[in-house]
């Protein structure tokens, strides 16, 4: 792994983590396209690349923490106040409870899928097919949402459904933000509400994965020998690009349809499925 690959993947992670186009799929595609260009076997993935993937997610986690710092503070404050006064009626308290419940549901669904998700790193053509499904779901949810005359806040029921969608998104090709936002739309919420909740719901999962995976999978004696210049460069790039992406994506969804991302997923999925099928 060199600094060019790291920065390139940092840009891809920063963009695709928050856009509904599957960051895991695009990291798989980028890594494998780079290997084809460099003449490296597609079945090869080093521990250093796995660690880079963790660090890139950490970069986008920092971006979402900074961007939503005020909302996060209000939610934590509401949880503390609500539990202390036994007044559970505030919107922020409910959102906090939904995020806690959603995180538990996500873990219960995603953890058993971990091995399957890991194996798909070496099957970019199949990941492309799953990305096509993401595109279809985005287009369908937009069409469904337009038929609804009244938009809702996130409810207990919709938060559970969104959490299930986030759990399934552990599989590369199923966009986390795509599935969660689409589920929010299908549940009756508007795009902005669904997107903001999706980003807030991602925080515990990304934080947990960034801390949990290295503790059980990585050899820290080996980590010291990694190309840290490349890793840190990619992490910084993913954070900066991620922050900018959140800012402008929320402005975009407040005015425009997610259809463009649905068509992108369809086209990208078809291209990558065909390309990597021919390469293998």
Compute the separation of the termini in Å: 22 Å
Structural class: mainly alpha
Overall mean pLDDT: 88
Radius of gyration: 19 Å
Binned strand content: under 5%
The percent range for helix content is over 70%
Major pleated sheet: none
Give the strand tally: 0
Helix/strand order, N-terminal first: HHHHHHHHHHHHH
Number of helices: 13
How does the overall form come out from the CA principal axes? globular
Poorly predicted regions: none
Which keywords apply here?
mainly alpha; 79% helix; 280 residues
Describe the structure.
This protein is an all-alpha fold and 280 residues long. It has 13 helices and no strands.
Strands, helices and their partners?
Elements: H1 3-16, H2 23-38, H3 47-67, H4 69-85, H5 91-110, H6 114-119, H7 124-147, H8 156-168, H9 176-186, H10 191-217, H11 220-223, H12 228-253, H13 259-279
Helix pairs in contact: 1-2, 1-3, 1-12, 2-7, 3-10, 3-12, 4-5, 5-8, 5-10, 7-9, 7-13, 8-9, 9-10
Condensed summary:
With 280 residues, this protein is mainly alpha-helical.
